[in-house]
Amino acid sequence: MIVKNIISSLWLAPASDAKERLSAILDSAPKGTEIFFRADDVGVPGDNCRRMIEIFRAHGVPLHLAVTPAWLTESRWATLQEWGGGDDFLCWHQHGWRHVNHQKTGKKGEFGTDRSRVAKKADLARGQEKLQSIMGASFQPFFTPPWNRFDSETAEVLSELGFKAVSRSDGEQKKVPLSDTLPDIFTNVDLHTRGEADPADGWNALMEDFEVAVRTGRVGVMLHHQRMNQAAFDFLDDCLSVIVRNNAVRLLRFDLL
Length: 257
Prior knowledge:
The protein is 39% helix and 15% strand.
């Protein structure tokens, strides 16, 4: 398993007013604004993964966990289940197959144009079958692609395999449009894979992302637990506490759409 654990600059210089800024943004949200959280690259239990799940559990906020099938084993699943304390607030779904880049040029992708339809379908089906076998009824028929992108052939295959929805990054719908039968529950706020060199710029950009997302009526937040440090966990705890006290927002779950 190869997953980057680079900590973005803003988490190396915590902002003392972050909770207040976020609270002000959410206070301006129109009533009925939807919010959901999606955690990628799940499958190998570790301290950061445990801490992330425990924070969501403590606040009673749903978390959508995108699990890479090749990384999951029966024993790892048992540990993840124990941390969750049941599936009431967790939505376990598929995150590719092995999280391996197959693109020869350009942006990374596991299910892009540089692979045959047959190969892509074989990996998607293999991952689906493995998660169904290990997770049983806890597996939900949703798909998050590694690096948040796939090609049009993959979209067709996902429908053929019975997936009910996908979750990519905002903007991917314009690049690879999907049919009405395969909706895209996209994310538009990225907490941890941020590239701003200056921490202040990072905090300003993150708050702007929240502001823009709120104006759309749906805030989809993407997490990567491997890239979290104490500051990132503290902000996540603050973020969830602000949300659960806000009567204008509604927590969204993929399986209840």
